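queue> pop job 88
queue> type: inverse folding (structure -> sequence)
queue> payload:
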């Protein structure tokens, strides 16, 4: 089974409207180059300092501490 929740698959979907495994070798190489050279993919919003996921926000609101270690 192909993982469809990876950065390279997100690039394939955004550029070709196809999953990475469906691409030709040239398109796969293009996705790889894009992933390595484009700051959009190198520094996504979820890796920014202070980013808080929706789950983190909800748990904070509900007072659930350290849910990631449970």
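queue> result:
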């Amino acid at each position: 089974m192909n993982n469809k929740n990876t950065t390279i698959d997100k690039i394939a979907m955004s550029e070709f409207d196809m999953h990475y495994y469906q691409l030709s070798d040239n398109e796969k190489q293009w996705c790889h180059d894009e992933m390595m050279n484009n700051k959009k993919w190198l520094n996504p919003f979820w890796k920014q300092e202070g980013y808080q996921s929706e789950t983190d926000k909800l748990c904070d609101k509900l007072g659930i501490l350290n849910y990631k270690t449970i």
